[in-house]
Design goal:
Helix content of chain A: 10-25%
Number of helices of chain A: 4
Strand order of the largest sheet of chain A: 1-5-18-7-16-19-20-22-21
Largest sheet of chain A: 9 strands, mixed
Radius of gyration of chain A: 20 Å
Shape of chain A: globular
Strand content of chain A: 25-35%
Number of strands of chain A: 22
Order of helices and strands of chain A: EEEEEHEEEEEEEEEEEEEEEHHEEH
Oligomer: homotetramer
Chain lengths: 352, 352, 352, 352
């Protein structure tokens, strides 16, 4: 067993759901180097179960997250690394909706207009984890179509800086409601630590979502989540970053959307310069030609965009001294042990 | 020859370059169903040839386009279809630069700031069309890396509505400086016709560019362009659209960036509803989960974003009654004839 | 008569209305030092005369301007000074309206939304030039109230740079549809000259408008306009500026609105530094504490904001070597001559 | 004494300063109908006392507020009314500064750019409360000028909704760092109550500031504040509102700036319709012609704009059943008693 991380099992119960980042006592501890297994509820707290359950009627609060988890040893100025080994739907159905005065193609409380709200409508999707597909069904007419299952967590973050407590609806430098499809299994998320213990929470699983999440709601479902946790001491992280096996990603959260773009590109340019030794303007040029960019959400209190570059373009440079590769390898070792050896636990439950 | 389009060869000369859309006499005519072969200069009019040629010193104007070409029979309310059969670098080098007060990570004339301009620096790339690669070289230090060649046209448009004449730097509903990497060979671009003859022009080739074109300049190079032209009578198009063999794309051009996002998503929702018979809110939901989105540029007078959906999600629905497939098949027939039969002309020249 | 300007009378006829800046032949000439007397139609071309005349039904085009007028001797790099001696309603009624998908509190073609348009409604105002009041009447219910008459021109501009031709709906560095209540009689407007002869046009009179013009339409009416014209040789002007007897004003036109703010404040800081000899950061500080700012419109293709500072704060410094004071004094001399001497003409007509 | 409010004296000490809204225990209680007398520190916590004290060096935190004060009986859904009887500089000097990467004409952490920060410079102003003037002094050169003293509080707010805790730097619907020059003595501020007791705090006095606060910092100084407190039961308030003797003001806080404009105008239209019985579109029209608008700040995490209308245009309608007039009259009564009778306390101290 030496070398394999210890698994912390956390069975989700109602009191473990919170609606803020910051200002809460931890529900459990996960040490650097350990793996956490837990579950998340959907953004409706599971209250929307049929197309007749209007969110504005059946929900009191939105977007619960599981947590916070305290990471002993994490201090302000460090970076928390969360490597997502598994993000697996816990139900065979997911829900989406239009919500009054929420979304990119409607007047909202900030883009205030004199129009009445668009109709509030709920859609139910089948989730087939075996086939790796979900099924869309129109509400008017009999149009249906399968879309690829692409599970992700919409909301992962730490306690904010400056003693702030932020609603779980908000994305910002502490993470939170990033709502980007890039946050899928196999990736590592890096978040700057603002308070002792980091105090991270996660939730808001989507069976999939489009880039920009234009109506404001993904295919919301409960998730089983397995995440390896580590802390990079003494290295700050200015905005949420993601690393995959082949790319580096910076995430900006702001309004207007060009500022989310600017933050993400600025960070990717700076990170690229740091990892390669390039002059900042040389890095600016390289990202300008080799970079990718896309919106995560254009509906939340801050919009998000990500900037990405292939590590191949950086001659294989990786972030934070290779922590992503190390966590990924540990995860594979753990998975192999579970499949062929003494499994430290099971995740076989289906949430109702 | 029956069934194959007639090829219009246009050899580019200096007077065929213009810097506006609208307000110019046509330089040639292309009939619906014909194929145009022409060339485009780079955004520096070819004046930046070494890293010591600073654009602000050696250029008087920027972003020349070849045209306008008149399409007899095109009338306001119709749609012009341009199917790009070939976009091929005409030089084995391309240039990029930072330009004073231009780009997303610098103060500009609109995002006005008290900072002095960032340094003006030029980068030269090798273009290897055989290998399908370009080579980046840092200006400070000896870092080099190969990036995939991905040729595109930054600027294609028609004469604007309302008797306007717009600088070729500007993207808007008439097309223009869209600066999106989606405008590559194999795609069809749809533009609403505003004046008799449509009066389209094209230019601003990039050997490649990143999404968002963050520094404001792609890998600029002259191009050989082959484009099949058609007109869809009586069908208007509200914003630039692209169709490929597997996806539909709508392009929004506006500031702030969320409005470019809104325009593109709104058009894709509307287009999806029209092609599938879905209710608009059902289409809104489908695009929300199945859609892709990315910025083209976040530096021009209007920013651009595109919204895309796979035609598979629409059960194979295609735009404008299949014009893209028809033009693509014609193009392949023409190509086969050229390769194995009596070629109507050659494109072998290299611009100097 | 020496010292008094010669008056150019221009009687407005239908063909003198245009809907663009740039690209038109001049309808008349006005020499530097001369005074022009002409008239302007309202933004509906006079076609909306009762509350039952819906603009979307009765209008083909919007926002006609009278012009262009050529100013011999004005060259690119010069500044055109227009001192408005009189802006006087030519009718005793004015019209306003909500227009489909236009205005700040509705989805528009750029802030694209899925809402249907708000209702199109027309309001008619009485204009009482003697009392200096206009009368608002609600359409539903019998609420009426008097508001101060504050006549202004919404649209004054010159031919744009770069051979562009812009719709008269658009405000930008060439002026155009600035839609600011600051452009009233007694002020001097400064515009950078882009083409020989400057080619200025004016129109879009409002009996008054609120700051920001939130519904998108002022109290539109035809105007009699008297304007003294001058050219400041060899002095460029980067954005529209206004001078009054006690303040300097810079106008920014852009989206998002913070960029219009930035342009206007940046120009006022720069102008302040130039007139006082202050270091730019000292001027930045002074404008930060002494400056005023307000939106003109938040509905046009570019939004406008102005930045203003009292000349008293600048120890009496005035723009362009005192041209405003000189034109104002000439205007007073002319007025005195008309009242007590040999009037060069009358403006007594009422447009129908 | 019947009819006159009881005065609560609160002597400011260091522990009474906080840097957040929400999440703190009250430092004192003020009953509805009582008057609070307290003091506020400047945004530098008094640490910037000469032009050589750079804020980035001498300050750990920014923008302390005095509070929170608990108002027994205030419940979520109620409105807190704060009538400012006095906002008086507590020092004869004030400080302003450019701060690295903060302000409207510089790259910031959200409008991220590759420029180095502008120079950090401090300006010191004399404050002469007797003359009602402050004195600006350039840092380079000997330019000085007097500006009118116009004391205001930049930051007044209540505990936010949704259990959030927000930095005192942030303006939003809970109030906070509104940074509007409209918040001067003689006005009543209305804030929606989110938590039992409202928990209001106040601070960030400016001897004056320009509209938009372009450099990001006003003329910061400590203040003596006297404020009458009341609660309007059962009446919610959607965004901060101000009432003066002659106008109603709504304040929007958002990015981009047009959304702050939209929020403020939307609220003023809605409020106007409610107070007059006008149809919402009739109110939209009336505000469009009679309304005023200006930015408060274009530098904070949310920008602010206000929308204002004269109560005369509303035929004298006032907000919340006349609470402003009632508080103002009580304030005058109290003042008269103090001047000629038994003063309940003195405000004569000068802070050092």
């Amino acid at each position: 067993m030496s070398g394999l991380p210890k698994v912390v099992e956390h069975v989700l119960t109602e009191p473990d759901l919170t609606y803020q980042f910051g200002g809460r006592y931890p529900i459990a501890e996960v040490l650097p180097g350990q793996v956490l297994r837990t579950s998340t509820e959907d953004c409706f707290s599971g209250a929307v179960r049929t197309v007749d359950d209007l969110p504005s009627k059946v929900c009191q609060q939105f977007n619960p997250v599981t947590g916070p988890f305290r990471v002993p040893g994490a201090e302000p100025g460090d970076t928390l690394a969360l490597h997502f080994m598994e993000i697996r739907p816990a139900r065979d159905w997911g829900m989406s909706a239009t919500f009054p005065h929420f979304g990119a193609l409607t007047g909202t409380h900030t883009t205030a207009m004199l129009h009445p709200a668009l109709p509030e409508i709920v859609w139910q999707y089948d989730i087939d984890t075996t086939a790796g597909m979900i099924r869309y069904r129109a509400r008017r007419g009999d149009y249906t179509v399968e879309l690829p299952l692409d599970p992700m967590l919409g909301t992962v973050g730490v306690a904010p800086a400056a003693d702030e407590v932020r609603s779980s609806i908000v994305p910002d430098v502490h993470g939170g409601n990033l709502d980007t499809p890039e946050l899928r299994a196999g990736t590592s998320l890096y978040l700057g630590v603002n308070v002792p213990g980091a105090m991270f929470s996660l939730g808001d699983g989507h069976a999939r979502q489009g880039q920009g999440e234009v109506c404001g709601v993904g295919v919301e479902t409960a998730m089983h989540v397995t995440v390896a946790v580590d802390v990079i001491k003494g290295v700050p992280t200015p905005c949420p970053r993601i690393e995959t096996d082949y790319q580096l990603i910076s995430i900006g959260a702001a309004r207007p959307l060009e500022d989310a773009f600017r933050i993400s590109q600025h960070d990717l340019v700076t990170w690229t310069a740091q990892l390669t030794g390039l002059d900042p303007l040389d890095a600016y040029q390289l990202v300008s030609q080799a970079g990718r960019a896309a919106p995560g959400n254009v509906c939340d209190p801050n919009y998000t965009m990500h900037a990405a570059i292939d590590t191949a373009v950086l001659h294989g440079a990786t972030g934070y001294g290779g922590v992503h590769q190390r966590l990924r390898d540990l995860a594979r070792g753990l998975l192999a042990t579970e499949l062929f050896g003494t499994s430290p636990g099971t995740m076989s439950g289906t949430m109702r």
